[in-house]
Each structure stands twice: as C-alpha cells, then as structure tokens.
Amino acid sequence: MRSVLWLSGVRRVGKTVLCQSLPDVEYFDCELPRTRRMMEDPEAFLEGLRGRRVVLDEIHRLSNPSELLKITADHYRDVRIIATGSSTLGAAQKFRDTLTGRKRDIWLTPMCLPDLKDAKQTDLERRFLRGGLPSFFLGEKVDERDFQEWMDSYWAKDIQEMFRLERKDPFQKLTELVLAQSGGIFEATHFAGPCEISRPTVTNYLRVLEATFVAHVIRPYSTRKPNEIISAPKVYGFDTGFICYYRGWQQLRRDDLGTLWEHFVLNEMMARMQTRDICYWRDKRGHEIDFVLANRGRNPIAIECKWSADRFDPTNLEAFRYLHPNGENVVLAADIKRSFGHSYGPLKVTFESLESFVSRMAPV
C-alpha cells in the first residue's frame, strides 16, 4: 500500500474542504509561513507524526515539496500523507521528482452527478450556467467579480508560483479564448495573433493549462487511415460556468444545452473513470464522433452526446464504423432514464443514461 496520495484539481474545486472533513487527520496549511518553517527539516517533522494520517494542503508552497514526499514514501511508511495541489505532480519546476511508483493519484473535478445528488440540486441547467465549483454552484448568486477573482488567484498562486511565467496578460488572454472557444479544433496559429505571442509560446501555455486542469486536450483517434484527421486536437475548458461566462451566456437557449451537455459528459467520464485518456474522431469529409474510448487491446467505444435522444442521427457513427467496424456504439442523452438498443441497418446502437454508462466503465 502506498503511503502518499496526491489529490489534484483546479483551485476552489473542494480539495481543502474534503481533506478537512476526513476523520482523524492532522491538517497542515502549507500557505502559512509557520507551517513551512516546521517542514524545513523533513525527518524531524515526520518523526513526530509516526502512525498518523496527515494532510499537506497546497504543498507546492514548500521550497522542495517532492523531497518531503519522497522521504515519507521511502522511510516513514507508517505516516499516511494526503498532499494537495492544483496541477499534475511533476508538471511544475518545484517538483524535481515525480514519485513514480510511490504515490496514488486522485483527481477532483468540478461537481459530477453524485455531487449534485448529495447537494440535493439535480437541475442540470443550473449546473451548466453556474459551473461545478461548489461555491459558484451553491451560492445564492454568482457575480462577475467571482470569475475574475478566481482568474487572478489562479495566476498568482498556481502559475507564477509553480511555472514562473512572467507575462500575465497574454496568458490570461489565451485562457479566456480557450474557455470561450471550448470544444473546438485547436490551431495554435489562430491564437498567436490575438494573444500577441509566438506559436511555440501558445503551445507552451496550453501545456500549462492542461497541467493545471484548466484545459483538457482531446486528441484524435486514428489508425492512420488516409481520410482521418490525425493531428489536430480539440480543447475543452474545465468548467461549464466559466465557458458560459466567457461566451457571455447569462441565460441558456436550447441550442446551448447540447454543447454544455457534451462538456458535462466529458467531466463525468474524467471524474468517475479518473482518466484523461479520451479521444475524439473526425474524417476529412466532416464526420465526427464526440468521444472515443480506446484502451489498448480493446475495440474502440464510440460515444455520441445528445441533449435529447430524438436528435440522434446515425450518419457519423456509420462513417466511423465503416473504418473501424468492431466496438460498442453509445448515445448518451440527458433524457434517457433506462437503456435500450436500436439498430440502423447493420449498425447497433445503445442509448444509455450518463449515470449508467460511467458506473459500468468506472474502475472498481
């Protein structure tokens, strides 16, 4: 059993509240200078915690956080540590050791279906418009200043602290454009001009957005067939509330619901399956599949997202299965309560609720 658990997720997603709610834990806020001074001698610090469960919140604030975690994993295995951070471990310069084989990773995403049930708030349109950060979703109202305050905090505490980026304006401009254009094909050259940065800098900034879970880069599924798109990724913003805000949506139209449902499906799959290994598919004639799950050694699962099941058209799935004949075809629609199958000639499609699908796909 590994003694270090790495709990990651974007700022204000609920990592601190979750950790503080755990029974029998010793909680340390690494943002406090006196806490950081306690950890300057890792061995002396850990010696006093033998047999304890410990939370090290915002551990990236330490000067050498990976050293403390590595010493714990190798020499103080009776000390169980939950370390929290807003990025993938090893993405930032401060983490000199990725702790491969020494830790377990858990990724806390914006609110998913079980969270909504626990909060007794199952209105998906509210979830779409306000987003899935608990304070945004559960508050009486969301003010425009809340989004800007989050952005400023993200820059100051995550980006400057961990990645040493110097130019705030172009980075924030790219972040805002990624959120506003979420779900589209990403071409770095299209962002370079508006952000007044070079194409390589756009690519570097996108890596930072991905490492801090603010953007999800969904790459194309392909077996190198001549008419498949093989290189252009799609980029999704992390939260529907921020997407609505940067698109200027204060009320949702029916046409908006399909786009936001697609984002919610992606969040649900990532949250429950704890993976970013999700693709999309597109050919040069414009046929497209929303998501493809392609685990090695298994046939690809093709997933189409529809706000309403009666809007499904099998054309794209037929084009995909012409090139990749074997595998499951799934339509995830918000109005499906019970799974059912339907055949379109030789094409067999399962219509399924999102809850049912992620429950059977999630690791035990």
Description:
It is a single chain. The strands form 2 sheets. The chain has a 9-stranded mixed β-sheet, with helices on both faces. It has a 5-stranded parallel β-sheet with strand order 2-3-4-1-5. It is globular, with a radius of gyration of 22 Å. Helix 6 packs across helix 12 (about 240-245), helix 10 (about 190-195) crosses helix 11 (about 200-210) and helix 13 runs parallel beside helix 15. With about 375 residues, it is α/β, with parallel strands linked by helices. The mean pLDDT is about 90. The chain has helices at about 15-20, 35-40, 40-45, 65-75, 115-120, 125-130, 135-140, 145-165, 170-180, 190-195, 200-210, 240-245, 255-275, 315-325, 355-360; strands at about 5-10, 25-30, 55, 80-85, 105, 185, 215-220, 235, 280, 290-295, 300-305, 330-335, 340-345, 345-350.
Brief digest:
The chain is an alpha/beta fold and 364 residues long.
Going by helix content, strand content and strand pairing, the class is alpha/beta
Total number of beta strands: 14
- The total of helices stands at 15
Describe the main β-sheet briefly.
Answer: 9 strands, mixed
| Mean pLDDT across every amino acid position | 92
Helical coverage, percent range: 40-55%
For the CA atoms, what is the radius of gyration?
22 Å
Name the strands of the widest sheet in spatial order: 6-8-7-9-10-11-12-14-13
Fraction in beta strands: 15-25%
Helix-strand sequence: EHEHHEHEEHHHHHEHHEEHHEEEHEEEH
CA-CA gap between termini: 17 Å
Which runs of at least 5 residues are low in confidence (pLDDT < 50)?
none
Give the overall form.
Answer: globular
